[in-house]
Amino acid sequence: MDQKSSTETGWRGSREGWLDAGYKALIENGIDAVKILPLAKQLNLSRTSFYWFFEDRESLLAALLDGWEARTTTPLVASTTQYAETQTEAMFNVIGTFIDAKAFDSKLEFAVRSWALQDDKVAERVRQADVVRLQALSEMLTRWGHDAVQADVRARTVYLVQIGYISMQVQEDLEVRLPRVPPYVEIYTGQPVSLNEIARFNGRFGRVSTLT
Fold first, then answer.
1. Which residue, among 12, 26, 9, 4, has the nearest Cα to 116 in the 3D structure?
2. Structural domains of the chain, ranges and CATH numbers in brackets
3. What average pLDDT does this structure show over 46-55?
């Protein structure tokens, strides 16, 4: 059987494979690159095999948006309720989630926000995610004793700084970024951080604190 026939009638791939290809196209080249035929060629599959897993391109895009929320909003909200003995440790948990690529997919976040600039429905989805994330941060700060206004402003300060890092595509090595986190935590919470908290935070990223 020649290659063309094999492509047309052979292995159909998998839903996860199509999603992964769509994800890579989105973060590397933007939403206009997420099209069925180019993805099929990349996967060496027939165009028709796509329809075994998705009704149409819109279904794939919807799945990519669901994946975006799972890789960004879900872990961020979870970090606001992660165990912490102090308010500053709780804030370290949040900032650590933003920095950790395995926890928060910054590349996908950037791609979806760029996509939202040309699609009102996606823009609304992003707006809703912003509301959920800010509410989670505000509720965390309220639990640590801040009044409603203080919690809201501090939550916005935390969130807008971190989204600013992503939107501006700031490139910082961990050696540069990690030492800046403790002062950020003190500004966000109004509380001093301990050396043990800094050491545990650095250890999360495989760094040994040199502070004494």
1. 26
2. 12-64 (1.10.10.60), 72-204 (no CATH)
3. 93
